[in-house]
Amino acid sequence: MENPLLPSEVIExxxxxxxxxxxxxxxxxxxxxKGAFVGREGSHAARLMELLKTAPKEQKRDLGAxxxxxxxxWEEALKSRQGELEEARKRRTSLASAWDPDLPPPLPAxxxxxxxxxxxxxxxxxxxPLGYHVEEGPEVETEGNNxxxxxxxxxxxxxxxxxxxxxxxxxxxxxxxxxxxVQVRGLKRLAPQIEAKGGIRFLAPGRVYRKDEVDPxxxxxxxxxxxxxxxxxxxxxxxxxxxxxxxxxxxxxGADVRFRPSYFPFVEPGCEVDVRCPLCxxxxxxxxxxxxxxxxxxxxLVHPNVLAYAGIDPSVWSGFxxxxxxxxxxxxxxxxxxxxxxxxxxxxxxNEMGGLY
Length: 357
Ligand code: FA5
Hints:
Elements: H1 8-23, H2 27-38, H3 44-54, H4 60-98, H5 115-127, E1 133-134, E2 140-142, H6 143-146, E3 173-175, H7 181-190, H8 194-197, E4 200-209, E5 221-231, H9 236-251, E6 257-262, E7 267-276, E8 293-302, H10 304-309, E9 318-325, H11 326-334, H12 347-353
Parallel strand pairs: 1-4
Antiparallel strand pairs: 2-3, 4-5, 5-9, 6-7, 7-8, 8-9
Helix pairs in contact: 1-4, 2-4, 3-4, 5-11
Bound molecules: adenosine-5'-[phenylalaninyl-phosphate].
C-alpha cells in the first residue's frame, strides 16, 4: 500500500496491522483495535476521510480509491479474526458447561410407576386398614368365571360376540370384561376357611377389555378394582358406609357422592355410584355429558346364586361387592378431561400426574 498520496504514519500503521490483529486473543482487544483503525472518530480511517475532504480536486479520485481499498482490507481482517474468536469462545463455554469436575455426577433418569398403577396401589392402601387383602385373576378368563359363576344367563347381551372378545381357537376362553370373575375365583379359594375366618374380604385390581367405542370416558381396555366382603348379616348399609369412607379418602371430606338403583345379575339389589363432576362442579360438561355427575362404579349385595356357585351357604352368609372404574377415578382426582391422556404416554402429562395421589 505504498501510495504516495497516503500519509506515511498510516502506511506504517497498516503494515503493523496484520500482526496486531493476530495478537488479539480476546474479543475486547479486537474491539479496541477496530476502534483505532475504523472507528467513527479519531481512527486512521476517520483521519483519512478528513484528508480526502481537503485534498486537491485532481487527487480526490485516486486518494478515495486508495482509502477505500485500505478500509476494506482492515475490515475484512477484523471480521475474520472476530469469527475465529467467537468460535473459540463458544467451544470454551460448551466444554465448560458439559463438564464441571466440581459438580456431583448427573443422576441417571429413572422410571416410575404409571399413574393408573399408583392409583390402584392407593386404593389397596385405602382398604387395607379395613382388613382387605389382594386377590388376583387372569385377563384371559373362562366363560364359567366371567359369566356363569356370576349368575349371568346364557342369553345376556354382555355374552354376545359383539360385546366380548373371544378366542377363535378356544371358544371357552375370553378376555375378561370386568374384574368380577375374581369374585368367583376368590370365593371358591377362600370358601373352606370362611367359618374359621368369620368371613371373606378382598380387593382385585386389574385390566379388563370391552368392545367399547373410544371417547373421553371410554376405552376398549381399562382398569377396575373389584371389592368383595362376605360375612354374617351383611346389608346395604355396610356397602354404603364402606364406599362413603373410600370416596372421602379419595376425593376429600367434601366429596359429593350419590347412589342410584341399577341392575347387575350378580347382585341383588344393585346400584351405581356417581361423584359430582369436579371438572364442571355439577353444571354440566363434555365429561359428565351435561348431567353434572360421573359414574365411578357398580355395586350391590352379592346374589345368593353367586355364593352358592362357590360352595358358600347363602342362608348363613351374605355380602356386598363393588367394581370401580380406575380411569374414571383418576380423571376425577386429577381433573383430567379425557382418559386417553393416560394411555398416550406423554412424559409431560405423566410427570404432572406424579404427585397427585
Ligand atoms: C361392572 O363392570 C360390574 N362388574 C361392576 C360391579 C361389581 C357391579 C360388583 C356390582 C358388583 P360396569 O359395567 O358399570 O360394571 O363398570 C364398572 C365401572 O367401570 C363403571 O362405573 C365405569 O367407571 C368403568 N367403565 C365401564 N366401561 C368403561 C370403559 N369402556 N372405559 C373406562 N371405564 C369404564
